[in-house]
Amino acid sequence: MAAADDPDPVKKKGQICEANFFTAELALQRGVKEEARRLFGLALADCPPTFVEAQAAAAELKLLGASP
């Protein structure tokens, strides 16, 4: 998350979105579904709607049985 920090708030939000999404994917790969669900939720909340990670996070949440 420290690497996602940026003085430009728009860029920072996008980078935090990506960090949460890919950390969620890693958690999912490791079988830590609750953490993955939490991080996908954060990614969905932070991702600009134009980011593919926003759509992917919503799809992953649906597969995990959580409502986006």
Question: What can you see in these coordinates?
Answer:
Helix content is 69%, strand content 0%. The protein starts with 8 loop residues before the first helix and ends in a 5-residue tail after the last helix. The chain has one domain (9-63). The chain has helices at residues 9-29, 33-46, 52-63. The chain has 3 helices and no strands.
Rg, rounded, reads 11 Å
**How many separate helices?**
3
Record field, number of beta strands = 0
- Poorly predicted ranges (pLDDT <50, ≥5 residues)? none
- Structural class by helix and strand composition: mainly alpha
Q: Strand content of the residues, in percent?
A: under 5%
Q: How do you describe this structure in short?
A:
The chain is mainly α. The protein has helices at 9-29, 33-46, 52-63.
Descriptive key words:
68 residues
Strand and helix map with partners:
Layout: H1 9-29, H2 33-46, H3 52-63
Helix pairs in contact: 1-2, 2-3
